[in-house]
């Protein structure tokens, strides 16, 4: 009777050990199929907590990077429009110089003024059509534009600026009523146009500095994001080669243990039958 109980306990322990090996093989197969060392909290609670925290930070950084890039895109749109307006002003200055000369007659000045007024209209159209996601960029000297320049989402990362009213009649350009249809008005127009050109240069200089800042911020944010991704990956991802090696070893041990358990089960049953 004692022998029966001892061998029964022995078989029970062998079966328990087999189950442990089978569970280990199953976990290793899951690691290989998912590519992750940690698939649930029970695998490694501390690692899961750290990896989840890093993933949350990665989401913040990814969103921050996208927001900064969108800010940069907005500035590029504004700068492209200002470059067009600057070219128009340069052409208008050339027309004013031509009209201020005594070498042309009144009819020629009227023709020159016609092109001058068309350029003013085109300048206004360009300013009014320059927008980003519904936000008008070049039609107000009172409404500031606020953009995120960093990923934190705090006020320290916000940039506030104003590009002015770039319409011909706006307070920045101030070409409302300006014409080159007569010689005197053409001479006066030159000073006004020069002031407008200087203002465009100042605004574009401001935009250039902001674009450089946003480009650096995007690069720094993406670089930091890559480092965080690497740390999170080192915590969560499985070493596939190592997992395959461990799984193969566990499978061999499980198969060997299964064979031994079967043989032991048969031998013990035979022995017990003799003792009955």
Which consecutive residue ranges, at least 5 long each, have pLDDT under 50? 1-6, 268-276
CATH A-level architecture of the largest domain: Up-down Bundle
| Tally of discrete structural domains | 2
* Topology-level CATH name of the largest domain: f41 fragment of flagellin, N-terminal domain
Strand order of the largest sheet: 1-2
Describe this structure in words.
With 276 residues, the protein is mainly alpha-helical. The chain folds into two domains: 2-35 and 238-275; 65-235, f41 fragment of flagellin, N-terminal domain (Up-down Bundle). 74% of the residues lie in helices and 6% in strands. The chain contains five helices and six strands, in the order αααββββββαα. The protein has helices at 2-34, 45-100, 106-129, 183-236, 240-275, and strands at residues 131-132, 135-136, 139-140, 145-148, 158-161, 164-165. The strands form three sheets. Strands 1-2 form a two-stranded antiparallel ribbon. A two-stranded antiparallel sheet has the order 3-6. It is rod-shaped.
Write the layout of secondary structure elements.
Blueprint lengths: L1 H33 L10 H56 L5 H24 L1 E2 L2 E2 L2 E2 L4 E4 L9 E4 L2 E2 L17 H54 L3 H36 L1
Short descriptors:
5 helices; mainly alpha; 276 residues; f41 fragment of flagellin, N-terminal domain; rod-shaped; 74% helix
């Amino acid at each position: 009777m004692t022998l029966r109980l001892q061998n029964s306990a022995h078989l029970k322990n062998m079966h328990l050990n087999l189950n442990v090996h089978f569970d280990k093989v199953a976990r290793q197969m899951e690691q290989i199929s998912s590519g992750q060392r940690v698939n649930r909290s029970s695998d490694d609670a501390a690692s899961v907590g750290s990896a989840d925290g890093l993933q949350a930070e990665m989401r913040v950084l990814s969103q921050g990077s996208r927001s900064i890039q969108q800010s940069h895109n907005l500035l590029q749109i504004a700068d492209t429009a200002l470059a067009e307006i600057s070219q128009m002003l340069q052409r208008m200055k050339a027309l004013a110089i031509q009209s201020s000369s005594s070498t042309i007659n009144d009819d020629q000045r009227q023709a020159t003024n016609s092109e001058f007024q068309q350029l003013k209209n085109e300048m206004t159209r360009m300013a009014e059509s320059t927008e980003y996601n519904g936000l008008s960029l070049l039609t107000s000297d009172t409404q500031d534009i606020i953009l995120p320049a960093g990923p934190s989402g705090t006020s320290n990362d916000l940039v506030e600026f104003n590009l002015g009213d770039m319409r011909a009649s706006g307070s920045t350009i101030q070409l409302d009523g300006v014409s080159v249809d007569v010689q005197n008005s053409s001479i006066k127009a030159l000073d006004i146009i020069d002031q407008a050109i200087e203002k465009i240069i100042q605004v574009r200089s401001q935009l250039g500095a902001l674009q450089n800042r946003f480009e650096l911020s995007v690069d720094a944010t993406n670089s930091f994001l890559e480092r965080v991704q690497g740390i999170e990956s080192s915590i969560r991802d499985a070493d596939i080669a190592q997992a395959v090696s461990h799984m193969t070893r566990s499978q061999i041990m499980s198969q060997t243990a299964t064979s031994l358990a079967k043989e032991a089960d048969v031998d013990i049953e035979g022995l017990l039958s003799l003792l009955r």
